[in-house]
Design a protein that fits this description.
Elements: E1 6-12, H1 16-22, H2 24-28, H3 41-50, E2 53-59, H4 70-87, E3 92-96, H5 103-117, E4 121-125, E5 127-128, E6 131-132, H6 139-147, E7 151-155, H7 173-187, H8 190-193, E8 198-201, H9 208-216, H10 222-225, H11 232-236, E9 240-242, H12 249-258, E10 264-265, H13 275-286, H14 292-306
Helix pairs in contact: 4-5, 5-6
Keywords: Hydrolase, Lyase
Organism: Enterovirga aerilata
GO biological process, one term: secondary metabolic process
């Protein structure tokens, strides 16, 4: 069997105190299964070994920190991830969370996570209390991430009032919230202002590959064109996208027609998506007809370029 080589850039953790404080119901309701996964670091390692994953960059998924003291719970989760990285050398990296919409606490946590804990980047949710990342409230956060030329992984959230009854948010609302977040970042000028930030967006960018040309029509408006002086498509193609739940023929095909393999990263969404989804990401890429160098970029090379510490 070949040595594990893949780097998984969307791999979630469920620390015990996090599950207790947020609540299994609040976590599980967002997922297709409707249940919070039973998870430990050892569960991740076993699944990774079965599917050729050398390293997983871990993060906390939606719903984030809807608790009375989000800053304390966020610090606990970031400490938990840092301890995993230290306990299993080479097997884990981490995207540290922030207790947004508390801007001051989040600025403090950026410094702590990147300078003290050694996190590989920052995990942002697409929206917080209905505010998207280009909102003026978050400008100090985005400016600090730009100053640091940070690696920023963006995971979808469920926007207030968007829930379509009977369907879990992971099926529809998450991809649409990613689409809204990208459009918001673009047309508020935030992407232009944060050109040094290295962004990864989940799940093939939601509906962006399908809607990119439609978004480009907005260049006809001078007030919007100013935020994409090189063109909307050019600005969108600066971004990176993962293939979690998106390595099937239709979705991956659309993504690779929209962007190039050097902007695509392997991801599994484990354990929020069960192990068969991890296998699906591996299998989908293997069957996509990619040239071997392009497959190597997606499975490992692009992650190493963005996060050299993972070597």
């Amino acid at each position: 069997m070949p040595a594990p080589h893949r780097i998984d850039t969307q791999h979630h953790i469920l620390p015990p105190r996090y599950v207790t404080e947020v609540g299994p119901e609040a976590i599980g309701r967002t997922l297709v299964s409707g249940q919070t996964p039973d998870w430990t670091p050892e569960h991740s390692l076993a699944a990774m070994d079965r599917h050729g994953i050398a390293t997983a960059v871990v993060s906390v998924s939606a719903p984030g920190f809807p608790v009375p003291d989000p800053a304390a719970l966020c610090r606990y989760c970031n400490d938990y991830a840092a301890e995993m990285v230290a306990r299993y050398p080479g097997r884990f990296g981490s995207f540290a969370s922030l207790p947004l919409p508390d801007v001051d606490a989040s600025l403090s946590e950026i410094s702590r996570a990147l300078d003290q804990l050694g996190a590989d980047g920052i995990c942002l949710l697409t929206s917080y209390d209905g505010r998207y990342l280009g909102d003026p409230l978050f400008a100090p956060i985005m400016d600090e991430l730009e100053r640091r030329e940070a690696m920023v992984y963006v995971h979808p959230n469920e926007a207030p009032g968007s829930f379509l009854g009977g369907l879990p948010p992971a099926s529809l609302e998450f991809p649409f919230d990613t689409t809204r977040a990208i459009a918001n970042l673009l047309f508020t000028g935030t992407l232009l202002r944060t050109r040094s930030v290295k962004y990864i967006f989940s799940h093939a960018g939601g509906a962006v590959p399908f809607l990119a040309e439609r978004l480009a029509r907005l260049e006809r408006r001078p007030d919007l064109k100013q935020h994409a002086p090189d063109g909307v498509l050019s600005e969108l193609r600066r971004l990176h996208f993962d293939v979690a739940l998106s390595a099937g023929e239709l979705t991956l095909g659309a993504l690779l027609r929209f962007t190039t393999p050097d902007r695509v990263l392997f991801a599994s969404d484990f354990p929020h998506a069960p192990e068969p989804a991890m296998a699906g990401s591996v299998d989908g890429l293997a069957k996509a007809g990619l040239a071997p160098p392009d497959l190597a970029l997606i499975e490992r090379g692009n992650a190493l370029r963005l996060m050299p510490r993972l070597r």
